[in-house]
Design goal:
mainly alpha; 19 helices
Length: 474
């Protein structure tokens, strides 16, 4: 249908993998798997649930009649109970034991935690894949001198590869946050209306040990190691803010990379991929706009903004729970993951196809290097018998004159020629040229690049097979 709104996160940006994690099929089959885990564990612990009932539930875990669920919800005005009834329609023998002792949050919250787990794991895989592609780029250009900037003003030289290591360092830190969030995930368990488990205590005749064992078995069946030690009706919404904070960290890193690349592309030093028939502008046919990098920035901003939803939701939960979290979380959690997924798809695509222009990079280096080399010129002149104070003054005068020529007349720097023609400097033109070899001014950039890659990045890459990401839809 083209006459209703559809989210561009599905139609244009996010991968099919991430879309599936937040799809109705994934959500409601997970609900059914949770009902199966509950019924089977209750049977194992002696409640009146039969193997035939459990088998019937398992046989119908995937055949969800969404029309039936919709009709039930129109009647009962409750989404969980609508799906209980729809499940019962196809499992008539098990109808009476579905959801036994549980509240809605047993399926909604536990399913959400499982969704967060799988979505975070996918994000982690994609971050590692971006690192893999940046690693290749950094290693290839580890020794290529380029102009470094502080305050967006020419500073000292670095290398193209070393700059890429700064992008990788950010993502490496993000992996720590993702891993921490993954390790902190716990199921809600089966807690009841206010988290006291009173309904399950009644089912098990006050046997708290069996209630604990029920939770342990359910968690094990769902592939989780732990449940929250205490809770209200829901799991603590601080967990959502922790997860979205980790995603926002990835968004920060991606934004920094994409913004740097947009600047480099404006300098004509490094460009994002540009396809043969791609149009950069509808009006200016010559343009090669960095649209992928701009899209990374746009979507990253959205992810960072969504953290406010999670923070405010966690802060405003009253006592054991309120329901003002529900509608917000239906939007903020999927959108954050679908958006960061799109960001990482784009990031991987761009990192895999960046185009470097060494001649343009060299031109900018050569424009600024004579100014950076003046300290070495002074020291070398003194070694050859020059007067340090006089040489310093001559460098100051020539530097200001060369800079004025560049800024006021739009001409290239002639600082080197001025120094070479000044008899106060006991240096030949060849000596001056030798002093201005760019490699002399990159410090330990190449060594730092090699060490960071081999000691920090390569062990991470070795632990994960290469993943196919980065196919940009539009």
């Amino acid at each position: 249908m083209k006459n209703t709104y559809e989210t561009p996160l599905n139609s244009r940006y996010a991968s099919k993998e991430m879309q599936y994690i937040f799809s109705p099929d994934r959500k409601f089959t997970t609900w059914r798997r949770l009902w199966i885990a509950l019924a089977e564990s209750e049977m194992e612990l002696g409640l009146p649930v039969t193997q035939a009932q459990v088998d019937e539930l398992k046989a119908h875990v995937d055949d969800i009649d969404y029309d039936a669920a919709r009709r039930h919800e129109e009647r009962v005005r409750h989404d969980v109970m609508a799906h209980v009834h729809a499940y019962g329609d196809v499992c008539p023998n098990a109808r009476g034991i579905i959801h036994l002792g549980a509240t809605s949050c047993y399926v909604t919250d536990n399913a959400d935690v499982l969704m967060l787990r799988d979505a975070l794991a996918l994000v982690r895989e994609k971050v590692v894949e971006v690192l893999r592609r940046l690693r290749k780029f950094a290693w290839e250009h580890k020794g290529l001198p380029c102009l470094g900037y502080t305050h967006l003003q020419p500073a000292q030289l670095t290398t193209v590869g070393k700059r890429a290591c700064l992008w990788m360092q950010d993502l490496y830190m993000d992996l720590d946050e993702i891993d921490f969030a993954l390790k902190s995930l716990k199921l809600l368990g089966n807690r009841g209306a206010t988290g006291t488990q009173v309904s399950f205590m009644e089912l098990f005749d006050g046997d708290g040990a069996k209630v604990d064992e029920l939770e342990r078995r359910i968690a094990e069946k769902m592939g989780m190691e732990a449940v929250f030690d205490v809770s209200g009706q829901t799991y603590p919404r601080k967990l959502d803010s922790r997860v979205l904070d980790a995603l926002a960290g990835v968004a920060q890193s991606a934004y920094k990379f994409a913004q740097d690349l947009r600047l480099l592309q404006s300098f004509r030093e490094v460009e994002e991929p540009f396809e043969k028939n791609q149009i950069g502008s509808s009006a200016m046919a010559y343009k090669r706009n960095p649209m992928r990098s701009e899209r990374i920035c746009a979507l990253s901003r959205h992810v960072m903004a969504l953290t406010q939803d999670a923070f405010n939701t966690a802060a405003t939960q009253w006592f054991e729970r309120t329901l003002d979290d529900s509608a917000n979380r239906r939007l903020s959690l999927p959108e954050a993951f679908l958006s960061i997924d799109a960001v990482l798809e784009l990031y991987a695509n761009v990192a895999d196809g960046m185009v470097v222009y060494p001649k343009m990079i060299g031109k900018r280096v050569n424009e600024n290097l004579p100014f950076m080399a003046t300290e070495d010129i002074i020291m070398e002149s003194v070694k050859n018998g020059g007067d340090r104070q006089e040489i310093h003054e001559r460098v100051r005068v020539h530097s200001q004159a060369a800079a004025t020529r560049m800024k006021q007349e739009g001409l290239e720097s002639d600082l080197l020629e001025r120094i070479a023609d000044d008899p106060a400097f006991p240096l030949s033109r060849d000596q001056l040229t030798e002093l201005l070899a760019p490699e002399k001014y990159t410090g330990r950039a190449e060594e730092q690049t090699e060490r960071f890659i081999t000691q920090v990045i390569d062990p991470i890459l070795a632990a994960q097979p290469e993943k196919q990401v980065g196919e940009v839809k539009v």
